[in-house]
Amino acid sequence: MVLVFVYIPVIFNFVYSFFRLSSYSAGKTFVGFDNYRRFFSDDIFPIMLKNNFLYCIISLIVQVGFGTIVALLLESKLAVKFKNVYRNIYYLPALISITAVGLMFTFIYEPNMGFINSVLKVFDLPTRSWLGDSKLAIYCIIAMSQWQFTGYITLLMVVAFQNISTDYIEAAEIDGAGPIRRALNIQLPLAKEQLLVCIIITVIGAFKLYTEVYATTSGGPGNSSQVLGLYLYQQAFLHDDLGMAAVAGVFIFAITVVLSIIQIKITGSGKD
Amino acid sequence: MKKSILKILLNIFFVILCIVILLPLFWIILNSLKTNQELFVNSLAMPKKLQFINYVKAWEMGLYKYFGNSILVSSVSLVFILALSSFLAYGLTRFNTKGSAVILIFVLGGMALSEQVALVPLYKILKAIHIYDTYFAVILPYIAFRIPFTVFLMRSFFISIPTEPPDIHKNNYSHY
């Protein structure tokens, strides 16, 4: 019952977006798959795909990889005294709204008085316009996201590691496994569910990427940091072309569903 | 001896990480306490005098309303999301009903959608049920879009809890 009530907005929207697939907003004209064709042959399309995939891969390595390593270190036997303090500090950026972080980093990357360029000037290193460089812009945005969300993944994994009963770890220690061995063969497999959650949300987030790009570059110098989510928004509201926007939406949905299913199948999660 | 060296290294690593994470925040807070001119001259310098007046001005210029809105929307959404998601996740993991898999796929699919996808149809729906210009227009879709993710997180946690309590009487040889 609850499920149906809450789901009506989401499901209805999905249905609507399907219906609008091949029609314009004011006055429906059915144009068949023309919208799809236009979408896939758009010049920006490979750029968007590349940006999204770049974000996905880098996020996986940095956020999930590095975040998990930090979580392992925090939970290790070396029992750091302030580990809760560290954990909370790392989590702090995730609490800031993405728009605020985007604006803040626009300020930081600013060519004349931004933080990065000011520091570089102190050391007499060359400065450059970070967000205005068409090759660097997307990397800057990716870096901003890593800053914000690595702590989030660390927190999730720390919780997962804390749930592992110490019996396992002690047993392994008695058997003579060193700390790295312990981490790889005991802690990681037992936290597999949580790791899967983190990977899935990172991948899905990578393709839903919209707010970060909008708050900083709105597509970047000359479309170089365009991403799928932003494209959808621009098509719907700037170009007033709901058909294309709906196509983009369906495409995003299809990719995320496919990737999620692949991930769930590979790790065989949820089976008791 | 080796252990304490490792400990010190680990601590240094954590502190460096903290500095990296906190530096942008610190810089921004520092700059928020400067006047405009000081900011443009050198953004790394300490402010000559802490301009708390900036915060007061921002608050008066409308920030108080935005803050209030945020608090209202977040707290209401929080209550509903937590309540609905916990029930849903618990039901999905504890009871082996026939439709569990279907519902799970539904919920996970909802996670893949972003709010921008549903924006225009959402507008029409909200207008149709007459809650267009109210707080609920923000709260309800927000809840709807956040539930899948929350359910996903909770479900992964519920799965890791064993279904049977540890059997303490199994090896109890006290009755004969």
Please describe what this structure looks like.
The complex is a heterodimer of chains A (272) and B (176). Chain A has 272 residues and is mostly helical. Chain A is 71% helix and 0% strand. Mean pLDDT of chain A is 75; it is low at 16-29. Chain B contains six helices and no strands. Chain B has two domains: 1-51, no CATH class; 62-161. Helix content of chain B is 72%, strand content 0%. In chain B, α4 (100-112) packs across α6 (136-159). With 176 residues, chain B is mainly alpha-helical. The chains are: A mainly alpha (272), B mainly alpha (176). Chains A and B meet through α1, α3, α4, α5 and α6 of A and α1, α3, α4, α5 and α6 of B.
Largest sheet of chain A: none
**What is the approximate shape of chain B?**
flat
* Domains of chain A, number: 1
Number of helices of chain B: 6
CATH class of chain A: Mainly Alpha
SSE pattern of chain B, N- to C-terminal: HHHHHH
Look up the CATH topology of chain A: MetI-like fold
As for the number of domains of chain B, it is: 2
Distance between the termini of chain A: 26 Å
Q: What proportion strand of chain A?
A: under 5%
Quickly count the helices of chain A.
Answer: 13
- If you compute it from the alpha carbons, what radius of gyration of chain A comes out, rounded to the nearest whole angstrom? 22 Å
Bin the helical content of chain A.
over 70%
- Average per-residue pLDDT of chain B, rounded, comes to 77
Low-confidence stretches of chain A: 16-29
Q: Gyration radius of chain B, to the nearest Å?
A: 26 Å
Give a short account of the largest sheet of chain B: none
